[in-house]
Every structure is written in C-alpha cells, then in structure tokens.
Amino acid sequence: MSYLISLGVGFAVGLVYWLLKVQSPAPPLIALAGLLGMVLGEHTIPVVKAQFFTTASASASAAQATQAVQLVSDKPGSDVAGRKETQ
C-alpha cells in the first residue's frame, strides 16, 4: 500500500513541477525547499496533535476537579479546606 501512496504523491509532485514549468530533477534550491517542506510537514502534524490533545486533556482534568470540589462543598458539614464549619 505504501508503494501506491508513494507513486500517487510522486505523480502529484510531477504535475506541480509541470504546472510551475520546473525541470526534473529540480534545481538545487527548489529541491531543498521541497525537502524542507516535507520535513516540516512530517513533524508539524505530531506536534499539533500533541498540543491539541494535551490542552484538551488538561481542560477535561480541570473541569473534573472543579466538579469534584463542588460536590464535596455541597455536602452538609463539609468544608473544602478541611476545616469544620462553625454554626
């Protein structure tokens, strides 16, 4: 399957080269810019995923902690700080 994906991506890049009127193999600066784009694209997705899921899980944990504090503080005779209420 990876061979078919590679072939498809290579075909798409060939079309882009043709549209930009760039000869294949590409001149060194264009080739380096393409390689840089591939490396950045390869590393960007995991970083964005890690940032998104870390933020989402931290928000969920904070929301759960807030709900737990509210449940404890709603019980009669309980104090969030651990002190007994004085009446």
Number of helices: 2
Helix content: over 70%
Ends: how far apart?
72 Å
Overall number of strands: 0
Q: What is the H-and-E element order?
A: HH
Rounded to an integer in angstroms, the radius of gyration calculated over CA atoms is: 28 Å
In short:
The protein contains two helices and no strands. With 87 residues, the protein is an all-alpha fold.
Protein described:
The protein is mainly α. The protein is 76% helix and 0% strand. The protein has 2 helices and no strands. The longest helix is centred in the middle third of the chain and has 47 residues, at 28-74. The radius of gyration is 28 Å and the shape is elongated. The relative contact order is 0.05. The model has no long low-confidence stretch (mean pLDDT 74).
What is the strand and helix layout of this fold?
Blueprint: H1 2-20, H2 28-74
Question: What key attributes describe this structure?
Answer:
mainly alpha; elongated; 87 residues
